[in-house]
Design goal:
This protein is α+β, with helices and mostly antiparallel strands. 30% of the residues lie in helices and 27% in strands. The protein has two domains: 198 residues, no CATH class; 94 residues, no CATH class.
Length: 341
């Protein structure tokens, strides 16, 4: 597929951040869809929402994220549709886009396996009892690395955040003292914004006093807290959508998947069958357990493309290309995307 454009890079800027990681991350159109589907927090707005509503919400998040930015020349740019929005509408959209990019940065840069709204994880983090501030996101490591705590902010331009807003966001991530089952915690603030030219970029801020030893003066560090976070809620929304859309069982990369299709978006979404069955049976899914098994994301991605082309029964238009993306949490997306010149 040489010569076909598959998204673009997003620049990472560091502000008082003692980190020597990559200056860019590659973001494909399939990865953008996967992050938009997985980062939402419908439970915070609709308690006990039915499966069909969750499926609609996932499609909606992906569709409006696509409508906000577009790839060109190896980078992501602000779309004309985004530029025409009113100020309050831009605020909402930049917040959603910030969450999507926060997930992709945490996975690509910090080795996070599961990343979502902090309400998705139980037992919850241990908070500083002297503050009511709470951050947006929690990410659990794939191996023995730190958990990440992220406050995500979206802005229409880089300079649209006051120093007071930045400091308030830093206070939100500092409110988390410990994450059960994780020996250390990395805390940072991510601002997702457009440059003056309209190019999508992110800036990471490292709050002072947010090192891996926790907040100075923490009355209960809980160094020996060995509880595992249960991931049932984390995976429940995508499992409910799979049920609502009559997912079929398909073998991808040597693993059985439940695969369902969003026809309006032209994509299919997959969740490992073991995860699907555990959520359906309301069984605990301990973080770090072997529920995902020996996941080879490259093989899953390759098999998903082959499935769409050869077995799905869908017609791939000649002006599109088949792309796939598989997250470290096992969630897969495959679809046909426009071939861009």
């Amino acid at each position: 597929m040489a010569g076909l454009h598959r998204g673009g890079v997003v620049r990472i800027e560091l502000c008082d951040f003692a980190f020597s990681g990559p200056a860019f991350i590659d973001v494909s159109e399939a990865a953008l869809d996967r992050a938009a589907i997985g980062v939402g927090n419908l439970n915070a707005f609709v308690a006990g929402a039915p499966s069909t509503v969750k499926a609609i919400a996932q499609q909606w998040r992906s569709a409006i994220t696509r409508d906000s930015i577009h790839p060109l020349g190896g980078r992501w740019w602000r779309s004309d549709n985004y530029a025409r929005l009113e100020r309050t509408e831009k605020g909402f959209m930049s917040g959603l886009l910030g969450g999507v990019l926060s997930k992709l940065v945490a996975e690509s840069v910090f080795g996070v396996r599961q990343f979502g709204h902090i309400e998705y994880f139980s037992p919850p983090p241990i908070y500083d009892p002297t503050t009511r501030r709470r951050p947006d996101f929690l990410g659990l490591p794939a191996g023995g690395g730190p958990a990440v705590i992220v406050e995500s902010k979206g802005r229409s331009d880089r300079l649209n955040a006051s120093p007071d807003q930045v400091e308030k966001a830093k206070g939100q991530v500092r409110s988390v003292l410990r994450v059960p089952g994780c020996a250390s915690v990395l805390r940072y603030v991510q601002y997702t914004h457009f440059t003056a030219d309209g190019v999508l970029a992110v800036t990471l801020h490292d709050p002072p006093g947010s090192d891996d030893d926790g907040i100075a003066g923490d009355p209960s560090p809980l160094e020996n807290d060995q509880r595992n976070v249960d991931l049932r809620v984390y995976y429940r929304d995508v499992v409910d959508a799979a049920v609502a859309l009559n997912a079929q069982r398909v073998r991808l990369g040597g693993i059985r998947y439940q695969l369902f299709t969003y026809n309006l978006l032209g994509i299919s979404v997959g969740v490992p069958d073991r995860i699907f069955q555990a959520v359906q049976q309301d069984q605990a899914i301990p973080a770090g357990s072997e529920y995902l098994g020996p996941l080879n994301t490259v093989d899953v991605a390759e098999d998903s493309r082959r499935w769409l082309i050869e077995e799905s029964g869908r017609v791939v238009p000649s002006d599109t290309q088949v792309l796939s993306d598989v997250g470290p949490d096992g969630i897969a997306v495959v679809g046909s995307y426009p071939i861009r010149g």
